[in-house]
Amino acid sequence: MTTKRPPTALEKMGLNSPMALALHLPSRYEDETELFTIQEALGLGRFHSIQTQGVVIRSQVMFHSRRQLLVTIEDDTASLQLRFLNFYPSQQKQMAVGAHVRVRGEVREGYQGAEMVHPIVRAVTPDSPLPASLTSVYPASAGLSQAIIRKAVLKALQDASLKESLAEFLPPKLMAEILPTNDWPPLQDAITYLHQPPADANTQSLLERTHSAWRRVQFEELLAQQISLKRAHAIRRERRAPSFAKTKQKAASIEEGLLKVLPFELTGAQARVWSEIGLDLSNTFPMNRLLQGDVGSGKTVIAALAAARTMDRGYQAAIMAPTEILAEQHYLKMQEWFEPLGVKIAWLSGSLKVKEKRLAQEIIESGEAQLTIGTHALIQDKVSFAMLGLAVIDEQHRFGVRQRLEIQQRVGSELFYCHQLMMSATPIPRTLAMTYYADLDISVIDELPPGRKPIATKVVKAARRDEVISGLHDWLAKELQAYWVCSLIEESEVLQLQTAVESFEQLTQALPNFKVGLVHGRLKSEEKAAVMAAFKANEIQLLVATTVIEVGVDVPNAALMVIEHAERFGYAQIHQLRGRVGRGSADSVCILLYAEPLSLAAKERLQTLRETSDGFVIAERDLSLRGPGELLGAKQSGDAMLRFVDLQRDAWLIELAQIAAERLLAEHGDLVKRHLERWLGSRTEFLKA
Ligand code: ADP
Ligand code: MG
Fold this sequence. Notes:
Helix 12 runs parallel beside helix 13 (300-312). The protein has 28 helices and 22 strands. Among the domains are: 34-130, CATH 2.40.50.140; 254-445, P-loop containing nucleotide triphosphate hydrolases (Rossmann fold); 455-612, P-loop containing nucleotide triphosphate hydrolases (Rossmann fold, 3-Layer(aba) Sandwich). A 7-stranded mixed β-sheet has the order 6-7-4-3-2-5-8, with helices on one face. The longest helix has 27 residues, at 212-238. By secondary structure, the protein is α/β, with parallel strands linked by helices. The structure holds adenosine-5'-diphosphate and magnesium ion. Adenosine-5'-diphosphate binds at residues 264-267, 270, 293, 295-301, 425, 449, 554, 583.
């Protein structure tokens, strides 16, 4: 009888084969190959870790504010104090007077002169040899020590199977043609080198991951990713979707009707993206396009045009938005544009009464509803369409990959997929588009509708809040409107609500001649809609709001926005919020109030936001801060894909990998599967999204 043993800590991290261990590459290295005298260490160790050794001449437990161990070591050149705030009796014993120790750490100026706080300590003899290679430090987990990982990796590297798993099979001719240099080591050598770099290795390039051994590994990893993305691309082209070419009976079409009722002409950029999208819709495979355009660039009308063409061909269209307020805005707009044309629109949100919801579901299912607007409710509830031809997903980064897939299961047919149009005001940097998003076509609206004014952004200390309020008074007196956005408190919706109510009361008192309104996430949707309608009608002059207004709200006469505790918001949030103003003819202003003390990161963020309103610049900054996962709305996917590549540092490699992937697919189909399995194993699933 066999009993199933629980997985070891190594297995829990997925380190269950020699190959997995071989690819568990160090996250950094420590240089223990060099030893300095204490005198040298005192000078050189100021900003980075340094290794020295000596004999213990004093060891005492002291009480300052807490119990601590102070040890002094000495060699022929000088002495050095070591300080330990937490220590075990075994350490005290290890560093007894007369013992010889090798220590590594940073030298800092303490109360009693130079000292090392919590150095790494090793008992040695005066002539203990130094290690021959740099010491690898591995990604670890609780309960899994460096020592255990090192031992397992060492064993794995000697495993006979590894020769086969890491065999060189990329055609040398192809590699030579593509790679800029031929000094990249073979894969197996590269991996061994990265685990055990020799003492004379270029430590800096190893740490920065620009060493040729790293390059080799990064290239292979990117190659696997590019191949799988290209395959996903091919798979989509084999899928079926209904083709919506432009209808011939022009006069009677909803599309023509819409173009007639629009109170404006499309901008050049809008016309261009609409023709790109129109072409996609005429294909017999599903569109998978991202429409990218800064806040206020006019994406909504493009969604409406795509919906119109879909409806003209007798299929249903749906528009899904991440918040109730945004979805409602779309609903109102679509009613305004489409109802005069006799289009039947369904509204579906989480806050509908059971009966209303059932009614909406019925007309969606029967096909009577030509256009459906809604929130997540569109995929959460038991909705299925009679014949869905187009799904528009606004602010797509707020949805996960899974939710975008979900809509495919509601189209009403097993025979075809629906076209998908994603829209986002958060631009995707090029490097990201080339990797994670390679099977997504992208259209960009790079022009704002005419008459937009730039937004002047000011960064103001919270201490000057009263001045801001009196400025607000003058502003409202000019018959303009304004937003007051309350601080973001992510941990607690209740706290956020509380601060909003406080600000609302304070502002109501301070501005007695004006009507102040309050909107927040806890209001019922009718209440929210009523407040928004009153604001739009200028019955409310100042709207105090939590971040529920973050996306999509459109009131051109409101050209001033104050954001409280701006330091708590991220780049994208402020950029989105700020996009609510600057839509009318008045000069627009955004005031970022911040509370001190300001962290360095927050300071830089606010400064950047003051200096630029270019969504691309802001997105790049955001990416370098947060990593790609959050921008994609698919955190789970990104992390698993690229382990050794940094999209910013290694951007130039992506292009090489792209070329190599194309050539490999075209000329060496037999190698493709082998390469994918080596690098991705089971992690390829999400790419089909
Ligand atoms: P976003 O891209 O942020 O979703 P919207 O679609 O909400 O932007 O458009 C912002 C505002 O610009 C709306 O009031 C819309 O009616 C208006 N708008 C859109 N396109 C044009 C245009 N070509 N000319 C003038 N105004 C436009
Ligand atoms: Mg929008």
